[in-house]
Amino acid sequence: MKPKKEITFLIEGLSEEDKEKLLSVLVLAEVRLDASWMYLEQADSADVCFSGGSVDQKPNIQAHAWVLYGKAESTEVFPRQGSELFCLRVDSNNVPFISDLICVLNQVFTWVERVSEQDSVEPEPEPEPEPEPEPEPEPEPEPEPEPEPEPEPRSEVNASEPQMVIPDASLIPTLMPVDDDSLPAAENPAATRIVDESRGSNSKLPWLDAITHYLHSLDADAEYCKIVLQSGDILMIDFNQERYYSSVEVESFISKGRDNKVSCFSVQDKHEFKTGVSKQGYIERPLSNLKWFLALYSNVGSLDIDAESDAYVLGAWPGNELPGLHRDHLKLAAFMRAKRASLSEIAAETGIAIGQITSFVEACHHEGLLLDEPELETLQELAPEKPKGLWGRLLHKIRG
After folding, report:
1. Does some domain include residue 146?
2. Cα–Cα distance between 292 and 322 in angstroms, integer?
3. Which candidate, 184, 267, 180, places its Cα nearest to that of 220?
4. Where are the beta strands (DSSP E) in 102-254?
5. Which H or E run contains 5?
6. What Cα–Cα distance (Å) separates residue 29 from each residue in 32, 34, 41, 240?
7. Were 62 and a residue from 45, 69, 218, 301 both cysteine, which residue would form a disulfide, CB within 3.0 to 4.6 Å?
8. Looking at the predicted structure, is the pLDDT value of residue 159 above 70?
9. Which residues of 3-21 are buried (b: 16+ CB within 10 A; e: fewer)?
10. Residues 285 and 317 in one domain
């Protein structure tokens, strides 16, 4: 199979939310594209630039092709010599239509290929004038040939024995055995880029298991609790208001690694809790955010999920403010918003491990993002005959 050519691209003038939407849809569309697309986060030049504004506002960026994000057509005069302008439509949620994205990017690829071929063809140099021939010098007298040395007598060779080409056996290099585990496996370049971007944010933090077990085991009557970590960080939880307070953002636990531990759990009354919260500059967040984070990064789950028979679909996108959210989660969200599927089906389509998908499903359960059967039936009854928007187009493609 011929490897796909790699096309580099920049994103300028888009919000972080729109940028993530574009990247997540591109991940799904890339299997149907003629090239492998690589995102350059910090660069001034690339093959393609996705622009959220006018092209002439970005004079320092060099690109063979420009894609205007969110426009069906452009009326502006394109100011760049040697570049071409394309337009990419989006739906009401500012998500690109996947069919339009595939069509536009294949057109962009064709244009970039043509420009690259023109750049690679060098003009033929003009022939230089031939110099006038110099007068031939008079021939020198030929020297007398030296007598050839007599060949040394050869020793007798036994033709039945193999002969060594290298004159000294000590000069033969020694081949060291190679451990098979040390050989790198061949990988899909597009998949490698996605893994590199999310590597480190996917790993579990075993010390979070104790916190998750503790929250699952608390009596329903518990109203307030305090958790002190070995690092000195503190979590204060108000079950009545469904809020938690922390001395640091819980997402920072990922960078701190696996060395942290829980020093103390304690159930508190209202007075102790209010006094403790008022004395510190705590960060306040919804309790569902903490449960989301623990579902993703601890090894403890509360749902009994069958990977083959249980199917799930998302009713909404995960918010960008959720702690620990990364590219694989956006890829799963894009797939699970398109159709209901089992964990095995999701793993086969996305290439993401079932264990990670299980954690993501539980995290979405705590955030209320999963649709149950009655909600799904209601949405299907209210849906128009012809699906609209990105997700409707995805459903249409999947159902054939």
Report:
1. no
2. 8
3. 267
4. 224-229, 234-238, 243-246
5. strand 5-12
6. 6, 10, 20, 44
7. 45
8. no
9. ebeebbbbbbbbeeebbbb
10. no
In terms of Cβ atoms closer than 10 Å to its own Cβ (0-12, 13-18, 19+), residue 216 is exposed
Number of domains in the chain: 3
Q: What is the pLDDT of residues 345-381, one digit of tens each?
A: 999 999 999 999 999 999 999 999 998 765 555 544 4
| Closest-CA residue to 74 (of 82, 84, 64) | 84
Burial class, 265, CB count within 10 angstroms (exposed 0-12 / middle 13-18 / buried 19+): middle
- Which domain range does residue 305 map to? 301-399
Give the long-range contacts of residues 73-81, CB within 8 A, separation 24 or more: 79/55, 80/55
| C-alpha–C-alpha distance, residues 69 and 22, integer Å | 9
Determine the Cα–Cα distance for residues 164 and 161; give it in Å rounded to an integer.
10
Could you tell me which residues are beta bridge partners of residue 284?
245
Q: Which of 347, 339, 346 is nearest to 376 (CA)?
A: 339
Last residue of a domain, one of 61, 82, 117: 117
**CB of 13 closer than 8 Å to CB of 320:** no
Q: What are the pLDDT digits (tens) for 248-267?
A: 999 888 887 667 888 888 99
From 117, 146, 176, give the residue that closes a domain. Answer: 117
| Tokens standing for residue 115 | 């420009």
Query: How many residues does the structure list for the chain?
Result: 400
Residues 6+ apart with CB under 8 A from 197: 326, 327
- As to burial, measured by CB atoms within 10 angstroms (0-12 exposed, 13-18 middle, 19+ buried), residue 56 is exposed
pLDDT at 5 over 50: yes
CA distances from 383 to 165, 359, 386, 387 (A): 81, 30, 8, 7
End-to-end CA distance of the chain: 27
Rounded to whole angstroms, how far apart are CA atoms 130 and 127? 9
Pair (350, 272) in one structural domain: no
What's the rounded Cα separation, in Å, for the pair 171 and 148?
32
Strand partners, 6: 36
Task: Determine the Cα angle at 155 with ends 150 and 161, to 5°.
Answer: 140
307 lies in the same domain as 385: yes
Closest C-alpha among 360, 386, 379 to residue 201: 360
